[in-house]
Design a protein that fits this description.
By secondary structure, this protein is an alpha/beta fold. The chain is 38% helix and 20% strand.
Length: 238
């Protein structure tokens, strides 16, 4: 079985289309699957829409709680509820197309984790972010390399594949609730000596991003400090 976990916050305009695409991709494959949508305190119709689709899409379910807790918290909730032998975490907008799952899967033959990357030479960025988002990302990545881990060119792409055991182990130990959760997960994996493949993927920017440039940047910087304090600088580790 493969588990696909999606964090959703006020995604009524995109979630149905994304879930239909995932369903169309998976239903022709010779494998069982589950799709877990975690409604991170939405105040729109995200949960009713997913519940309605679950009547016709086998293996789809929604987990909801009332207060917005953050993407990291939502994905942790979904991953710990998953049962798959492999676990994919994906953005609700499918900025990385679900077909890229086939790009990551072969890497699990010799790695525990395969992460999509927008920053490699063979990555295909079909729709670019605005310049200020690109600069934010580059600055954040430099700080990540300085404070926590320097192994990866892109820690923040929201398309990551794990063996199921590894996903549930790492997310069980994780404590970061918002957007810097990726850095914590990868730092935990590095500390445990787990092999991680960084893989070029196709990616489309979605203009309807939920990231607030100032508020979320400050939160992410604070979270990097927390990760450094709890895990240390894994860049110095072999």
């Amino acid at each position: 079985m493969i588990s696909i976990v999606i964090a959703a916050f006020n995604e009524e305009n995109r979630i149905s289309r994304s879930l239909q695409k995932i369903h169309e991709f998976l239903r022709g494959r010779d494998t069982d699957y589950e799709i877990i949508v975690v409604d991170d305190g939405s105040i729109d119709r995200t949960t009713p829409l997913v519940a309605e689709l679950a009547r016709t899409i086998a293996g789809l379910r929604v987990i909801r709680y009332d207060n917005n807790r953050g993407k990291g918290y939502a994905l942790r909730t979904g991953v710990l509820a998953s049962k798959g032998e492999t676990v994919l975490v994906s953005d609700a907008d499918l900025s990385t197309p679900i077909e890229e799952l086939d790009t990551l899967l072969p890497h699990l033959s010799d790695c525990r984790i395969a992460i999509g990357s927008r920053a490699l030479a063979l990555s295909e960025i079909v729709v670019k972010q605005p310049w200020w988002r690109q600069q934010m990302g580059k600055t954040f990545n430099r700080i990540v390399k300085l404070l926590v881990i320097d192994d990866f060119n892109d820690t923040q792409c929201g398309f990551k594949l794990f063996t199921g055991e590894t996903a549930r182990e790492l997310f069980r130990e994780a404590r970061i609730d918002r957007f810097a959760y990726d850095v914590e997960i990868l730092a935990l994996a590095k500390k445990k000596g787990y092999r991680v493949a960084e893989v070029p993927i196709k990616w489309f920017n979605d203009a309807a991003s939920k990231v607030h440039p100032i508020r979320d940047s400050l939160r992410m910087l604070a979270d990097l400090v927390r990760i450094r304090q709890s895990i240390g600088n894994t860049s110095a580790q072999p």
